[in-house]
Amino acid sequence: MPSQPAPISESGTSGVPKERALKDRGNLFEIASKQFEKAFDAVDLDPDVREILRQPKNELIINFPVRLDDGRYHMLKGYRVQHNNLMGPFKGGLRYHHEANLDEMKALAAWMTYKCALHDIPFGGAKGGIKFNPREHSQDELQRITRRFTHALGSNIGPEWDIPAPDVGTNDRIMVWMMDTFMNVVGYLDKNAVRRVVTGKTIASGGSYGRQEATGMGLVHCISEWAHDENFSLDGCSFTVQGFGNVGSHCARLLAKKGAVMVGVGDWKGYIANPEGINPHKLGEWVNETGSVADYRAAKAISREQFFGLETDIFIPAALELEIGAAEAEALRCKLVAEGANGPTYPEADDIMAKRGIHVIPDILANSGGVVVSYYEWLQNKRSERWDHADVLQRLERRMRRTYAAVRQTASQRGFDWRTACYALGLERLQQCYIERGIFP
Ligand code: NAD
User: Fold this and answer.
1) What is the pTM of this model?
2) Which CB contacts under 8 angstroms, 24+ apart, belong to 120-123?
3) Which residue's alpha carbon is nearest to atom 27 within ligand 1?
């Protein structure tokens, strides 16, 4: 059992920041690199392989104009970082966020390399984004921004080269606009053969059943494995979620199906709590109507500080990176942190949680269900097949449980913490491949 920290006062004197602004967060790539170096040391990675993996292979910045609905032109900055493609085509999400920046993309791209290698999926790692707030734009503007950026990327993406997918601020419709633009510009001679240039598409346009809920579902498979190992019942336990978008909302619904009770949730606009439970289906309807969990009637508004101090069994960060610093790690009163978001935890917070006996299922394992089903979507497109829903979900479950078991075994046999165990499995696969292939020329 974790030790109980001091209760959180109404005025937020717990030391948990009211919000985490970009300037306060630090450089994500530098912070992520600390994690990578710790894992490189743990597996005694070859110095040449370290050098290769320390930096991404390609970093692309594109400034491009878009016509707004009122006729004005507006310049936007887009990124695509391709970290590594040793195991297969670059693969990674596309993010629309007003704080998107190159160092964030570099960290997120590297995490994708390690996530795919951990699962032994034949993809490398990439990440992209455009620096703007999608909430401030109409659907027509979003479509023009997406198409113009895809056009500017040109053959820097491709079905056997680099395959984007949805991430924060993007969705299946945006993926379909990307696919359609790519088909008409780069792949116009054989449109169907390039359908798999993006994954996470709508079903009608070549997406896979199960992709929408895949990341949340993969997370729940990990949580179920943890509960099984700990002899802990999910039925009747409590959980809190930060971020109620694709990952957070699906995870909440699936946990509720197992009898777990959501007692707190928050997003970009605010945090709410109800010790009696918040129905994630009804909350989802509210979020669809209003764009946020804030002001939901069947719960009371709380501050970010209070949210982090809520007593709960499981905490699921499913918003942005670097949300759990030292103060949050001290404030948490939970047994398990299951990282739905990429990179939510600072290295010092990891140490504090370990000391306090809080278990952590690390991001590259916990949120990997999305890339697993993206891989299935890519395979279905390549083979002109459509797998039924149950088939996709069964394959996802089998793969998540298999990888979870491999991490469990690596951690216990080699005395690694779970994050290091996840990296170790991925890094050793990458290293083996470099040793066999050598560096050209
Ligand atoms: P999303 O855009 O659907 O949802 C993001 C959620 O985070 C929203 O509820 C938003 O309001 C909230 N949020 C944004 N800023 C916040 C802030 N400052 N404080 C609190 N909440 C805030 O995005 P998503 O696809 O659900 O992705 C969430 C996380 O999961 C990201 O870290 C993403 O990289 C990661 N992830 C997503 C997938 C996927 O398949 N979508 C796969 C793997 C990892």
Assistant:
1) 0.95
2) 120/429, 121/87, 121/88, 121/371, 121/372, 121/375, 122/87, 122/88, 122/375, 123/87, 123/88, 123/89, 123/90, 123/91, 123/163, 123/371, 123/375
3) 168
